[in-house]
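[audit] Reproducing an earlier prediction to check determinism. Same input, same settings, fresh worker. If the tokens differ from the archived copy the diff job will pick it up downstream; this log only records the rerun itself.
[audit] input (251 residues):
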Amino acid sequence: MNIVLIGSGNAATVLGKKSIAAGHEVLQVAGRNEEACADIASKLNCTFTINWNFIDPLADIYIVAISDTALSAVHEQLNLDRHLVVHTAGAVSKEVLKTVSKNYGVLYPLQTLRKENAVLPEIPFLIDANTADSISLIKDFAETLSTHVQVADDERRKKIHLAAVLVNNFTNHLYALAEKFCEAEHLDFKLLLPLITETSERIKTNSPSEVQTGPAVRGDEATIDMHLQLLKKYPQLIKLYEMFTDSIQSK
């Protein structure tokens, strides 16, 4: 398929690279930041424009990979008539594109995307569209990029987006807090990396609840009390430690 990418950030870059690797052609990158557009266009060997009035009219699919905030105003800047246009947001309705084109939908990459990464990650896709024909086209396209493609309406997609925040954003925040604690206590955070990797590997074949370990699940009150004593200088960590302990023990 011939593709136009609207956006010049992480999602546009990675999806462009994925598309080319799957044998598609990126015709053009469109965005507001000229330097960023030029950079991604050079990587994808295509043209670029910062004037959305000059978007290439010959693409099979237009992928709008911009922020959720920018999506709310995209109808004011973009008119693609009957061309198939999709956005990549997890928590935004497909209906945000209903005045952009007669054929619209969603191509949501359920993955954290970084344009700097040399290796393209495995990306599950959740898709949707306003017509059965458009869903079929998006599905055919998505299946060239991934072996994990599911149709998900707005409500289902919002819920999986929430779950993604829990497992990715919140978990990473805990890593960040643990790193700060280690720095403050002159400990080597990197010693924890094999533990992080081992846990992530285990849940590939087991339910997370089945592989839960630690003093909370064991009911080891002595260790819990010791940990809370060690955290006296860190009120934020005490609050989180007590909250997670209570949550684990109340299952």
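[audit] rerun output stored. Observation attached for the diff report: The mean pLDDT is 95.
[audit] end
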